[in-house]
Design a protein that fits this description.
Blueprint (H helix, E strand, L loop, with lengths): L2 H30 L4 H8 L3 H29 L4 H27 L2
Helix pairs in contact: 1-3, 3-4
Bound molecules: protoporphyrin IX containing FE.
Length: about 110
């Protein structure tokens, strides 16, 4: 077990835990107020705060999920640690690219 990766996975989990609670609270708030997609976009577009919030979320989940996938592949597949690492990095970069695209769609003016 790689201690640095272990610490990164725990640290990113600790970052995501409060972020996911805020995200769920925002979903409830928007649903209760009956906000439409354009109402939501009117609030998020141009907001540096929401860009930072969801940008941090995307960074944390990309790192966290990639490390987790690396562990799972290493333990459960015949891949060597090195190859499991390459697959995990590819997966992490894919998550980061999709996430950044999604954040850009809601915060860019
Ligand atoms: C609030 C969100 C999340 C929290 C608090 C969280 C927390 C954790 C914790 C505490 C671990 C165990 C780390 C260890 O002791 O080795 C873990 C493992 C893992 N997480 Fe997450 N996680 C979250 C979201 C996610 C997401 C969104 C994904 C995937 C897209 C994910 C994928 C994994 C994987 C694959 C593992 C490794 C399982 C293993 O080693 O057997 N997690 N997570």
């Amino acid at each position: 077990m790689n201690v640095r990766l272990y610490v990164w996975q725990r640290a990113t989990a600790a970052i995501m835990a409060p972020l996911v609670l805020v995200h769920i609270a925002v979903i409830f708030y928007a649903a209760r107020r009956g906000l439409s997609a354009s109402d939501v976009l009117a609030r998020t577009r141009g907001s540096i705060a929401w860009a930072a919030f969801y940008g941090l979320f995307v960074a944390a989940v990309s790192i966290h999920a990639a490390i987790g996938l690396r562990n799972v592949l290493h333990e459960w597949s015949p891949l060597t640690e090195r190859r499991a690492g390459f697959c995990a990095i590819g997966f992490g970069l894919l998550l980061a690219a999709l996430g950044i695209r999604a954040v850009a769609a809601v915060v860019l003016p």
